[in-house]
């Protein structure tokens, strides 16, 4: 036997053993992580699954915020062809589970002790009638402001901590020929800005009453009117090409210094990092104006669908277990811009933005200023959330609608069942 022949045989044998031991299966995974930082994070998930000897079938549907992905998912499930795992979050998990299409992964969760590794606020969302149906990957903070320090220096402006300061800085950037705020005019991005303004102007208690409990009196209050007026003023500092722009292209404008700031969750940090930029030096992360003591959370998770093939079920469970491992939580979140969802992880490799996020996540959980993101599907059932977002975008894009008219529209939208 030649040496090469022997090596080939050995390799084949090793492959067979691996396949035999782990019952190699295939996992089709639906996600919308296609931007620079997102794609790197998705690759980490793929590598983790492949490391267990299984096959990854990529089902990526481009479109920030996942609206397109959810539309495609619905049609696949309706036609009886669900993927093994899909990026589904917040109350939508309950909606899908109620359809009877999600798998119970309690055996994995018990073996891996998820109840003791997850904050209860997250664990509860991952369960339907007491059983785990999804695995969480991260905690994104949504209420961030990203700034280009060079642009600020050129404009003689200071990174704002209140909405009053925000408009002072925006005027200075504008005077220096820099687009003050990079924005992408899509519903979910409009609402990402809106909820940060609501939190900064109204505070966490107002945010919870108006946007989470959908309390009619709060939705039609003077505070809401002030939120809407402030929000609309931000529009005048965006550029004329904003409509339809993808969020990562808006981030690229800040990276290049064409724009001074962006209001966006920390998946934007994934873009800065993927572009080789260093936090504190090439870009600044600051809480969105007026929100330093609050935290808007957005937890990404993968729901597991019922499957028939045993090997694929095994692969799906291996994926769920791997998602919660310390190795995966570290490498994934370093690329994604988020922080691990698993408690008590060592953050030594994480940057100061992530460390601040982690500290604020813990602190705000104690003060009651930890609030769910409505823009990212954490708080409100999908029908009402969609109607409210439409109303907010109509106001953002209209030259005529007053804040009072917008308030009435949003309050009606909040009653959508
Ligand atoms: C969010 C999602 C993030 C990020 C962002 C932009 O809804 O939770 O992971 O990818 O959309 O696509």
TrEMBL record:
Its main location: periplasm. GO terms for cellular component: periplasmic space. It is found in: Periplasm. SUPFAM superfamilies: Periplasmic binding protein-like II (SSF53850). Residues 1-24 form the signal peptide. Belongs to the bacterial solute-binding protein 1 family. Part of a binding-protein-dependent transport system for a sugar. This is Probable sugar-binding periplasmic protein. It comes from Sphaerotilus montanus.
């Amino acid at each position: 036997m030649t040496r090469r022949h022997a090596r080939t045989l050995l390799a084949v044998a090793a492959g067979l053993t691996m396949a035999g031991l782990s019952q190699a299966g295939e996992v089709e995974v639906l996600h919308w992580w296609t931007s620079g930082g997102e794609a790197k994070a998705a690759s980490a998930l793929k590598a983790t699954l492949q490391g267990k000897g299984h096959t990854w079938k990529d089902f990526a549907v481009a479109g920030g915020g996942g609206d397109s992905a959810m539309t495609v998912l619905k049609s696949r499930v309706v036609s009886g062809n669900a993927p093994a795992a899909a990026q589904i979050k917040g109350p939508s998990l309950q909606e899908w589970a109620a359809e009877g299409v999600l798998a119970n992964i309690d055996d994995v969760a018990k073996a891996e002790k998820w109840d003791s590794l997850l904050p209860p606020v997250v664990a509860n969302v991952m369960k339907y009638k007491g059983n785990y149906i999804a695995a969480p990957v991260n905690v994104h903070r949504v209420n961030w402001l990203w700034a280009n320090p060079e642009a600020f220096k050129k404009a003689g402006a200071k990174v704002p901590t209140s909405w009053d300061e925000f408009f002072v800085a925006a005027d200075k950037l504008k005077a220096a020929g820099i687009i003050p705020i990079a924005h992408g005019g899509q519903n979910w991005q409009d609402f990402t800005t809106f909820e940060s303004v609501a939190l900064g102007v109204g505070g966490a208690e107002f945010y919870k009453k108006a946007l989470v409990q959908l309390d009619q009196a709060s939705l039609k209050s003077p505070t809401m009117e002030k939120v809407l007026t402030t929000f609309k003023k931000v529009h005048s500092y965006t550029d004329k090409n904003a409509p339809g722009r993808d969020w990562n292209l808006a981030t690229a404008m800040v990276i290049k210094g064409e724009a001074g700031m962006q209001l966006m969750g920390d998946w934007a940090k994934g873009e800065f990092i993927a572009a080789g930029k260093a936090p504190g030096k090439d870009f600044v992360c600051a809480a969105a104006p007026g929100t330093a003591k609050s935290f808007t959370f957005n937890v990404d998770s993968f729901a597991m669908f019922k499957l028939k093939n045993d090997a694929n079920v095994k692969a799906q469970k291996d994926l769920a277990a791997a998602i919660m491992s310390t190795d995966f939580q570290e490498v994934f979140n370093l690329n994604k811009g988020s922080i691990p969802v698993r408690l008590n992880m060592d953050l030594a490799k994480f940057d100061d933005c992530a460390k601040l996020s982690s500290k604020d996540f813990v602190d705000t959980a104690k003060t009651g200023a930890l609030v769910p993101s409505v823009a990212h599907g954490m708080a409100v059932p999908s029908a009402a959330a969609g109607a409210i977002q439409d109303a907010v975008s109509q106001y953002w894009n209209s030259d005529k609608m007053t804040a009072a008219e917008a308030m009435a529209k949003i309050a009606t939208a909040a009653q959508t069942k």
